Structure formats: C-alpha cells, structure tokens
From TrEMBL:
UniProt protein name: Methionine synthase
Origin superkingdom: Eukaryota
Source species of the chain: Panagrolaimus sp. PS1159
Amino acid sequence: MPRNEEIFKAISDLASERIMIIDGAMGTMIQREHLDEPDFRCIDSLKDHPKSLKGNNDLLSLTRPDIIKKIHKLYLEAGADFIETNTFSGTTIAQADYGCEHLVYDINFESAKLAKEACQEVWNATGQRKFVCGAIGPTNKTLSISPSVEQPEFRNVTFQELVKAYGDQARALLDGGADVLLVETIFDTANSKAAIFAIKQLFDDEKRLEVPIFISGTIVDLSGRTLSGQTGEAFLISTKHGHPTSIGLNCALGAKEMRPFIEAISRNTTSLVLCYPNAGLPNALGGYDETPEEMAEDVATFARDGLVNILGGCCGTTPDHIRAITKATKGIIPREPPKSIRPNHMFLAGLEPFYIGADTNFVNIGERCNVAGSRKFCSLIKNEKYDEAISVARIQVENGAQIIDVNLDDGLLDGPYCMSKFLRLISGEPDVAKVPICIDSSDFKVIIAGLEACQGRCIVNSISLKEGEEAFIERAKLVQRYGAACVVMAFDEEGQAAETDRKFEICERSYHLLIEKAGFDPEDIIFDPNILTIGTGMEEHGQYAINFIDACRLIKENLPGCFISGGVSNISFSFRGMEQLREAMHSVFLYHAISAGLDMGIVNAGALPVYSDIDKELLDLCENLIFNKTPDATEKMLVYAQQMKKGEKKIDTDANQWRNENVEERLKYALVKGIDTFVVEDTEEARLNTERYPRPLNVIEKPLMAGMSVVGELFGSGKMFLPQVIKSARVMKKAVAHLIPFMNKEREERIAEMGAEGNDNPYNGTVVIATVKGDVHDIGKNIVSVVLGCNNFKVIDLGVMTPCEKIIQAAIDEKADIIGCSGLITPSLDEMVHVAKEMQRRGLKIPLLIGGATTSKTHTAVKIAPRYASPVIHCLDASKSVVVVSSLLDQKTRQEFIEDINDDYGDVRSDYYDSLKERRFVSLIEARKRKLHIDWNHFTPVKPNVLGHKIITDLDLNELVEFIDWKPFFDVWQLRGKYPNRNYPNIFKDEQVGAEAKKVFEDAKTWLNKLLKESSDSSIKNKLRGNAIISFFPAASDEDDIQLYHPDTQSPTKKLHGLRQQSDKEHDQPCLCISDFIKPLNFDGKPEDYVGLFACGILGAQEIAENLEKKLMDDYASIMVKALADRLAEAFAEWLHLQVRRNYWGYSKNEDLNATDLISIKYEGIRPAPGYPTQPDHREKLTMWEIMPVEKEAGIILTDSLAMHPASSVSGLYFAHPQSEYFSLGKIDRDQVQDYSLRRGESVEEVERWLSPNLGYDA
C-alpha cells in the first residue's frame, strides 16, 4: 500500500535527533473550564437532544471549538510535538451512551481539523513542525471479558462491530487531516487488534495513503498486566502485525510505577517507544497531586536511561507538566531502536509471550481439544459441558503443552459458535490462556470465529493451495490482517501430497506466494508436509513416514526462516486402541523427524515415553515400521502389541554402619559427608518425634542446623573444601524440601486458630543474589549462594540476566538484609553501577556486595561505591562472602567493619586518582608511528582452503578431552595449591588441598564420562552438544581497523575496529593494535590478506544443570556440569584452532604439538576475543554475528550486555601472521577515545561506557 513518506520521514528524522513530546490530558484541561450543559448543546442540532450531554467532551469540538483549540495551542506552546485530537470517545459505540452516534463523523473530522489548524498556526509562528495524532480510545466495551459473572462466555460487542466503529472513526480522522493514528489506553488487546484490522482495511480497501500508527497499552496495576491479563511483552507480540511506528504505555500508573514495564517494552521492540503516564497515582478524591517538576524528573530518567523516544502525560497532566518535561529532556540523546529483536524467531502469545526459534526445543502442541481425535472431548462439547472441556485443555498445559490446538469440526456442531464460545471461556482461565492457541479447522469461517475470540497472537491451522492461488493469497492476507502465524498444508489443486518431491514442490510454491504476494515474513510460515498413516497393510503406505522426514530436510535446506509442524498421532492411526504402542511409535517417529527439522507437532503432551526408555524390542519394531525395513513390519508390531507387559525395578537399600546411630547423628553424618540417600526418611523420623521436636521448624533449627554448623566450621577452618560444602548443601535442600509442606500446614492452622502471623525465621539473615542483566554466567554466584546457605543465611537466588528492577523489588519484598550482584563480562560492571544508582534512587539502605571474575576492589571503590550511600563491598570469592555478610549483620562488629571498609576504599580511590596523574601516554599519532612494522614485501599471506562459512554441528565431544586445560577447573572450586603445586597435575601433591582436588577430579572424570556417553546417544534429548561456525574473509588493514571483503566479489563488507596501546614504553617496544598483523591493500587497491572469525559452544549444560537443581536438588552436580561444559568449550576453541591451522586455513599444515604445547600457545597465529585484553570492546561481537549466522548455525546468542548464551561459548578472530601475538591494550587516553568514536560513528560518552575499565582518565 502507498505510504505518506513525508510524514514517516519527518517523524523518523526528529526522533533520531531528540526526545519528542506528546501532549497532556485533554480532560483535565476541560475540567478547568467549568463547563455546564449549555456548553454541550450550543449548536442547533443538539438544542433539543433528549439526553444529558454534559461530560461528552468529544462533542466540544463541535459546540465549543474555541476551547478545544485553545487547549491544543497551550500544549503546543509548552513544547508538544504531537497533540491528540479530542476524540477519545469518538466511536459510535462510546457515543451511543449519549445518543450521538449520528455525529461520529463530524466529531472526528472537526476534531482533526481543529488540531491541524492549531499545529499549523504554531508551526508558522515558530518554524517547528507539529503533528496531529488522531486519538482512538478503547471504547467502553471489551472483547476478552464478559460483563456478566453468570455468563463468562457472553460479550456485549463483537469483533466486527468494533472494526466498523473503529473504521468509521479512523476514516473521519484522516479526512480531517490527522498525521498519525493513535490507538491508545488499550486495556484489552483484542480491542486494539480490531482497531488495527479496521485501519489496515481502510488503507488496503480504500487505497488511502498509509500514515504512521502509534499504539499505547495500559498496564493496570503493579502485576504488570493489562486488564484482560496480558503481560506487556505479550501485548507487544499481539499487536506487532500493525507495524506500529511507535508503541508504548499510558494511563493507570504514574511514572515511578510504570518504569519497569516501559523498560520491558523498550527492550522488546524495534519501534519508537512512547510513554505518557498519569501525574502520579490518584489521591483519595480521585485527583492527581504530582507536580510538573516531580513528574518531569521521573520521566526524564526514562530518557536518560535510553528507554523512550516520545514522552508526555495522561490523566492529571497539564501544559505545565509538558513544559517541565520538555525542559527536563532537552539535549538528552534519544533511544536508538534496535534493528531486530530475536531474529529468525516466531513470535506467539497467549497471556504470556512464547518464542520459537533454533534455540528452542521441539514445541508440543496439545492435541486433546479436538472433537475428531478425542471422543471424551467431543462428548463434552456436544453436551455443552464446557467447564470439563476446559479441564482437558488445562491438563494438556500442565503436562507440557506449549500451544493448545482447538478443533471443533463436527457435522453436528455449529463450528463458529462453538469455537467462539470455547475460546472466550478459555480467556477467563489464566492457567490455560497463558499459552497461545492454534485454531484448527477445515472451515475458514470457524477459523475467523476463533481469530476474533483471541487477544493473543495465534496460529491458524490451516490454509492450502487446494482451491488455487487466488483463494490461497486472499486467505493468507486475511490471516495476516488478524495478526496470526499460519500453517500451510502440502495440498494443492491436484490433492494431498504423499511423495517427498510433491510435498516439497507445494511447500516451495506456497512459500514464494506468501512472501512475494501476501507479504508474510518467513518466520510466520509453518509448513505441514502431511504426516500420513503407516502400518495399514497397504504397500504404497510404507514410505509415508520416510517421505515426511525427507521433506522436512528439503524444506529446511531450501526455504529459510520457516517452521515445520505436523499431526503426530496420524502416523499410528492404524493401531488405535493400542495406546502404549502408539505412544512409543510417536516418540520414535518424533526423534527422527525432529533431527530432520520438525519444529513442533500436535501431540498428546505428557503421553510420550522417553525414547531411551522404550523397550528395546518395541523400539526395533517401531524403527522397522517407520523406515519400512521389512514387508512384515506391521504384522510383527501387531503380535508384539498382544504381548506387552509392564516391567518392574528393584532398589538396593543396604545401609552402612553409620545407619545404626541415632537420627541426630545420622543427619549430621549425612550432611558432613554429603550423602543424600536416606536424608528424607531420617528427616521424617525426626519430625515424627514430636516429644523432642514439637514443630517441623525445630528439625531445621536443631539437628539439621547442627550438622550444617559443623560443615561451616570445617569449611571456615580449611578442613573442608568447596566441593564438599556443595554436596552438603544438596543434602540440606532435600531435607528442608521434605519439611516445607508440614511447616506450611502448621502455619495455616496457627493463623486459623490464633490469627498468628507465623513469622518464624530460623535464619541469620536474608541475602538477595543475582547475576546482573545481560550476563549469563552463574557458577560463581551459585557457589556463593550455596556457601551462604550452609552458614544459615536465607538466600533468594534470582538467577542470571536479572533486571535491576527485579533485584531491588525482590530485596524489598523479601525484606533482605543484603544484595549481592555477580558478573563475568565487562559490560556487567556498568550494570552494577546502574544497580547502585537505582538502589540510591529508591532509597534502599542495605549493603551491596559485588563479585565475579570481571570485578575488582578498585572498580568497586572508584566506580560503584560513590553512587550509593550505604556500604558497597567487593567479595573476592565464596569463602570471603561468609565473613563479609556475617560482619555486616553482626550488630557488635557492623559499624567498625563498615568504617574499616570506608577507610580502605577511600585509600584505594586516592591511589587510583594519583595513578592517573602519574600515568604517561603517548599521543595516538605517536602510538601509530610506533606500530609493529612488518616487512609485507617479503611475506605472502596463505589463502584459506575455505572462504566464507564452515559449520560444525554435534561434534563428537570425545575429540576434545585431550585439549582440556584443567587448571581453571580447580579455580572454580577454589582449590589453589601452593608453588610448586599450583597447576594440574601437581595440585594433587599439595599438602592442604591435594586430597580434595583428587576427589573432585575423580568426580569430574565420572561426570565427564557420563556426559560424553550421553552426548553420543541419539536417544537422549537433554545432552551436551558441540556446535561451531568458522568464517574466512579477504581483509586489509586500514590504519587501526581491518576492512573485510566479500569472498566472491571482493567488495568491502564490514569493518573490524581495533584499539592501540598508548602507555609510554621503551622506544624500541611497539604500540600494538590487531590491525598491525594484517597486510594493507596492495598497489592495485586489492586485499591480499585474510582474517578468520569463529564461535563455538557447548549447548545443553544449562538444561542438564537446571534438572539437577530443581528435580534432584543437587547443586554439586549442577556446578560440576557447568564447570565441565566451560572446560569443553575452551577445549573446543583449542581443537578448532588446530583444525584451522592445519586444514581450513592450512597455514601451518605440518604443525606437531602436544596438548601441553597448545595450552602454552606455542603454535603460530593467535585467536583474540572481543571483550578481552587485546580488543576489550564487546560490541565487536555484534559485527561477527552480523556477518556469520552464529545464532542460526551454532545456537549461540548475544544478550543485552553482549555475553554469549550459553555461557559455555567462545568466540574470536583468527590471525595467521607469524609475528602476531597476544597483548593487553591497557589504558588509553582521550584522543584515542575520540578517534574511536568517530570511526564507529557514535558519541564519546557511549565509547567511554563500553571501555570504562580501559580509560586512562576519569570519565
């Protein structure tokens, strides 16, 4: 559709320059006019109107245009760039309350015309462009909530009625001159989808010029949800098909309360972000008390923190508020919207968001809400037992369904009515409605009914080419207008495809039609290449499973971005009634189909056996049948079905001698030795001894804490080591988990009887601990968590990538005594500064502990502590955290401890600033003169054997074992030998830690063997996998940068930026930069050198570790798995570099070094990593990810702070020149920071933020 490009460009240009301003409340200003009934009737057509009109503010555009225009100009003169038309209630639905439906066109037309005149007058007077936003309110009716408690499925408006009302309003607003259409105050996303539908219909069907759409939702309370229950992120996803120029939040909350929700919006959209909160929360009389200055300061922090592009006010705000906001945001650099959010992912939503991509496992679509596939469900629907039918959906979700498929196609049912009713009822059940819906029908009228009953982003199942291209494209466009993803069947004019080639041919044709004619994104396309029934006895059906699997491979290889689904139970339909057999067939079929590219499937969630648990004989029979290996496969399967029996397992429960002690001694022994085999039964024995332990809490306070006290004493005295402590914590967690239900029951009984609060707290204090936003590394944090827990502190572990708001809110909610922040990558340092600032802003008084590999005492003292008035303390390791926390919470030692810390950190700051004065730098010009000079005339770079990308998936991890560097493994466990026994294997000889190091190493070998064995077992789903991608490009140095060139065309592509050493050295010592190792362009302007890029990762460790933590409560094993995955990732990088030197690049084909030599870097060439000493700017990874499909091929993603996820990942560059070497950049001076900012095209402040640890001056 044609666009009004001038408007789009004008808004885009302004938004890139500064924070833009939208006006404040129209209603608040109208109230100040003290109008009465005559003011609403002073035109001839309304003088005798039968209803009272006072309060119908939209009418004032007709009856008192002077007042409305005056208000517009007050806002414009206060600094507003956008003013909203006086049409919040300008639909026929809202005007029906006043009997003014017939005036809707005039109200909207005249309102837009008035606003346009006001804008033009101010534009003429000031030279500043102003814009009219045609305001489209939510109406007073909702599609997702019933107005009747007795009839939860009832709605007092239909989707199409809303579409008509919104369309009429939008048409009049555009006719009156609106520059933008603003769909605002969305408390029900379904209503906004109707508005989007109407607007798109207007643009398409009436061939109007498209104008920008702004969308603004309303989070109604601090739960972070709309009135209809969606999270902000789900709201974003559900409206993304509207392609809003700007999206955000307004109303209901003040700026302070709105902040975390606008942060979430900002992180998850590529649109401009707008925010216009109320002037605080309403007071007891319904008014708003926040002053212009107070509100301006609050929203200005949004701007300073890069959260927003457009700011303004809603209820209670006035031109004075807008003037204050304009002043407070002047000169602030606006948010730069990200170019993409989760690329190559499908976005779906129920009440909550759901993403599908290469990083997600197979998606289970629940199949039981299907009248054709479930007799029970069919009976419930036919008998109008909808409550029980919803329970079928609920059980599916509880059993792991991530999407619910709903099919109500039956000749005796009114499909559209039943679909609409069922989905409306589901919308009132949050535990079901949280997941997306797959609307499944062969009747397109039923699909439309389903789409109009869902506020989330659904899947339509399905459309096909059965009725030809014209009908296919028409339906596809309609699905897109409703905002859904779409399943496309391998079905065309000639019928259903059964053969592989036909399946692919139809999917390929559909793919191009959808993208080129219907405007689909590939990620919104799901192909169903038809899972057809096997085992029918008919020979021609024998290949059906193989054909589907082969078609999946072809689709994935040739149709990028799309997804694949299928109805899994179809495969076994011949064996209906034999459920165990069918479930085994489904599991085996899925195992092979998923490896071929199947992303999701309609299955009975919870009824799939684990592939590796299937009886060997049955497994062979399933494989035989699925792959059509023998003619009698079906017959053999039927024979087996008659003989199926369940097996049983026996558990050996022999006890050792210590089992003869009393229960207290047994619990102590189990805790100290880390034995969890009998801890539940021993804990239960203690609980039942009510004479000794009258309450369950007493079991924790006495025998369990007594055992943990011994553990703490042994650890504190160095007689017990970290691995043993973590094993002890595992035992403690199991014991406490057993007691919790009894404690909860007792508490409820006490409250019921006595009104007691039940505030029993056996802990020494509460610590909230988290890895900060953008960082995925958690081994160190988890160890601290365990050690603190073992010392009787209550630990609230918030996990990784934790937003600042969540940390602070958890501390408030839990009444925490201390907050601990952890991080491994350098951008985490800046996030920790942000946490400290926010703690100060929110008025917290509790200590903040800082830890993690990238942190330091100096950075904590210089950069973090000054931002927070209460204690900020750096903790070197887990053992130190206990001392620090204990000292801070001991009232006798607290004050003296804090004073000592303050004095110490004061000295650190003084020394730091003194060192800045003493530091000597050479200028950047001089440093470049001192570059490493290589004689390029006598060096011919080796051309790589592979140009472009080389992908490695599912590497045999056994290949990596000999490349493991074990020293960092012992560092994880804080086992540090003394010279000469510091390194592996000499650490085993150390008198103090040697014995424990040996034990841990034996555990590591056991776990490594287990992990390696599972990694090569195709039947196991959650396992370690090794993926990597390598790319080689022609390259040439360009001063301190490296220009890359396309391997085929030799045209310039991306540029890698380098930084040069500036510390003054001996004159014969070069000031190095990575570009020194690359040859410049030759005399013909052609590149002759090459650079390699790589990323490799060990995937699956997080899932294995989470299972160990949550299901088995085994922290020791969890940390062990993560530590081993880290070692394998580094070994992977070492192995990969060897392959590069010998084979892929081949510049060192005859290299013959052992593993020790490799770890000692005795080879030729280097592989420096962005974010580390040679080039400490983590943002260079963004360039790498742009030119290599890392996420797609290797499954490694970048977080907001550019940490790699999974954490067990390594990336870097390859340099081949023999003189290339690792070096540390060290500190750099202002002239280089300014030069670097110019080369990158960004502000000096942004560079200083990312390179903070390397600045040789105080920024």
